[in-house]
């Protein structure tokens, strides 16, 4: 049973690792939260260290937290109380905008405004590979098969990178020169959704290359928001799409047959831009981070806020949640 069904078990990350909830902010702080009580159980206050926290990712085994901080990535031990990272990956020359763990925790992928995608070996703490994307990278996700990456960029392109052949094998440009802000993949690798700066979402079916059909088959597009879209994310059960926006809302789209997306509910409560979101493992809850300095935990069934996390002194721009099996 998913950990979120047992609020009585939710203590601090050091006492109980069933739920890891983390937020990052322009106040240079990373905060760990007790999901149900709303209490901040640990703060990584990077005093004297410059650079805002851009993105967060939790390793599949719940042991490590990767924090993209300006031009570098700090790797922290979640069970520790230390402010110092275990290791720091440096080499990007501009903001790191994306970070994601391999499902066995062997490597980490990052994307940056410097136009590069980098793969870091967590076992040797070294840089393994660099891809030249040719334009500032806004997001990178790892395909569930762990053999491909999907990136999106400021030039309006979506690219598939084949890790075995070390090449860009496919490129999509749904709207020329309109930056693609965010990409998300279904957990079974069957569907890709991308959201752009104009608030529009594009959907592709991903076909097995052995079927003879195009690898990416465009199936629909729709206007999710009338303002800047910051994040789109498919739920683990692939039944919903969450979209975050500068319009202060999060919209939840039900995914019907034939890849039809229907607006199910609009989550309202944040006072400023909503930058990031993360689903619980059972797709029943959603965490969001906003420029209003707060994060919120939403119940998907009711669309209501069940907890608000207060403590950041500037915009909360990223969040990470891991309540599944470690």
From TrEMBL:
GO terms for cellular component: cytoplasm; TORC1 complex; TORC2 complex. GO terms for biological process: positive regulation of phosphatidylinositol 3-kinase/protein kinase B signal transduction; regulation of actin cytoskeleton organization; regulation of cellular component size; TORC2 signaling. Coiled coil: none annotated. SMART domains: WD40 (SM00320). The keyword S-adenosyl-L-methionine does not apply. PROSITE patterns: WD_REPEATS_1 (PS00678), WD_REPEATS_2 (PS50082), WD_REPEATS_REGION (PS50294). Belongs to the WD repeat LST8 family. This is Protein LST8 homolog. It comes from Agaricus bisporus var. burnettii (strain JB137-S8 / ATCC MYA-4627 / FGSC 10392). The lineage of its organism: Eukaryota, Fungi, Dikarya, Basidiomycota, Agaricomycotina.
């Amino acid at each position: 049973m998913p950990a979120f069904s047992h609020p009585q078990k939710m203590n601090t990350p050091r006492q109980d690792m069933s739920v890891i909830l983390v937020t990052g902010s322009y106040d240079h702080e990373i905060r760990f939260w007790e999901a149900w009580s709303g209490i901040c159980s640990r703060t990584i206050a990077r005093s004297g260290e410059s650079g805002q926290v851009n993105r967060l990712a939790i390793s599949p085994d719940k042991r490590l937290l990767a924090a993209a901080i300006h031009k570098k990535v700090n790797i922290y031990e979640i069970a520790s109380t230390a402010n110092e990272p275990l290791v720091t990956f440096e080499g990007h020359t501009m903001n790191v905008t994306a970070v994601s763990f391999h499902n066995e925790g062997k490597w980490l992928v990052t994307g940056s405004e410097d136009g590069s995608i980098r793969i870091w070996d967590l076992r040797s703490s070294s840089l393994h590979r660099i891809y030249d994307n040719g334009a500032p990278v806004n997001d990178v996700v790892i395909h569930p098969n762990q053999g491909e990456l999907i990136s999106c960029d400021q030039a309006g392109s979506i690219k598939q990178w084949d890790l075995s052949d070390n090449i860009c094998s496919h490129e999509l440009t749904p709207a020329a020169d309109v930056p693609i802000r965010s990409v998300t993949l279904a957990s079974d690798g069957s569907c890709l959704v991308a959201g752009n700066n104009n608030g529009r979402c594009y959907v592709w079916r991903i076909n097995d290359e052995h079927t003879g059909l195009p690898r990416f088959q465009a199936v629909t597009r729709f206007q999710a928001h009338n303002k800047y879209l910051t994040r789109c994310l498919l739920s683990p059960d692939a039944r919903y799409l969450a979209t975050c926006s500068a319009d202060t809302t999060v919209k939840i789209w039900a995914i019907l047959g034939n890849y039809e997306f229907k607006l199910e509910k609009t989550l309202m409560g944040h006072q400023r831009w909503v930058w990031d979101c993360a689903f619980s493992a059972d797709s029943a809850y959603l965490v969001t981070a906003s420029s209003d300095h707060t994060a919120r935990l939403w119940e998907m069934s009711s669309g209501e806020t069940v907890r608000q996390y207060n403590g950041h002194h500037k915009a909360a721009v990223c969040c990470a949640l891991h309540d599944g099996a470690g």
